[in-house]
Amino acid sequence: MKVIDLSMPIADGMPVYPGDPEVKVKVAHTYESHSWELRQLSMGSHTGTHVDAPSHMHPGAATLDELPLERFFGASRVVRIKDSAWPEGRGLFFFESAGLECFDRFAALRPPFVGGELSEELERALLGIGIVTYTGLQGLERLPVGADFMFYGFPLRIVSGDGSPVRAVAVVETEPHRSSGSSV
Hints:
Order of helices and strands: EEHEEEEHEHEEEE
Mean pLDDT: 94
Strand content: 25-35%
Number of domains: 1
Distance between the termini: 31 Å
Number of helices: 3
CATH topology: Glucose Oxidase, domain 1
């Protein structure tokens, strides 16, 4: 088994979507002052690698705390826009930018989640039909193409949450190691 971290590190002053709150990570307590260390975090709910709830772009739609945990993990696959068929019943991820031209295929398949470089129009349309989206992922090129993997991207349990940073992780099954020696 191979575990692949797909998350951006959260750091003071990191880039954010234009107009979103600045990211501030400050030391609030030190070992010297309190006998422990503590950081104060200030950031928007769509900072770095994050998940979007339908309520992010649709008033009255489901919020993070209303969605079951099963919506944030599961069997997944990397697909390409030009692929003739995308698998059913899996989360779908893209290396390339995906736009509104993909929406009808998603609407027909109804994957539990979609991730990658999604246009704002596609993201809005997916959230409108209840498909959660993951953006700000890094390292998708390390995932196998044409093979399933398990994806985990749990949000913080934010009451009425429209989105949340996540630690996005893919777990890829690897071939069992076989000995090259022979026994006689």
